Amino acid sequence: MQTSDKSINTSKINALPGLSLEVKAANGMIITFHSNGLVTFPSTISVSEPTIGSNATTKNYVDGRISTVQTALTNQNTSIRTYVDSQDLILKNFLIGLLNTEISNINLNLTNHINNIDVHYTILNIEINS
């Protein structure tokens, strides 16, 4: 084992300045453990299918699960249901009531105007014919 002022070297482990640690494999590849929790591997690593949330996984596994869920959603139904807040329903009913009131008022005003036109037409027609 060799030591220096900032690192310790063995044939397999090297403690680097900055709190990183290198481990040299028998084939010469180096795995680096960084102080921030990252681990650098010299090549692709393999992991088994995850069984809990904190397990490692692969992009292919995640893509496959997303594809399965998307396919299931597509096959279920053509409609999607969503949660509606009761306040939204209160607002909707209020606006419908307000619109119905306004429509009734417009209909009443139109009816009154039409009746006035009929009265004026009748008076005018009587005056012309008299």
Structure description:
With 130 residues, the chain is α+β, with helices and mostly antiparallel strands. Among the domains are: 2-40, no CATH class; 84-130. It is 48% helix and 15% strand. The protein contains 2 helices and 6 strands. Strands 1-2-3-4-5-6 form a 6-stranded antiparallel beta sheet, with no helix packed on it. The relative contact order is 0.04.
Topology, element by element:
Blueprint: E1 2-3, E2 8-9, E3 13-16, E4 20-24, E5 30-33, E6 39-40, H1 59-76, H2 86-129
Antiparallel strand pairs: 1-2, 2-3, 3-4, 4-5, 5-6
How far apart the termini lie comes to 131 Å
Helix content: 40-55%
Give the helices and strands as they follow along the chain. Answer: EEEEEEHH
Query: Structural class of the secondary elements?
Result: alpha+beta
**β-sheet strand percentage:** 5-15%
Strand adjacency order, main sheet: 1-2-3-4-5-6
Uncertain runs:
none
Work out the number of β strands: 6
> Helix count?
2
Query: How many strands, which pairing sense, and closed or not: the largest β-sheet?
Result: 6 strands, antiparallel
Globally, the shape reads rod-shaped
Provide the residue-averaged pLDDT.
78
State Rg. 40 Å
Short structural description:
With about 130 residues, the chain is of the alpha+beta class. The protein has helices at about 60-75, 85-130; strands spanning about 1-5, 10, 15, 20-25, 30-35, 40.
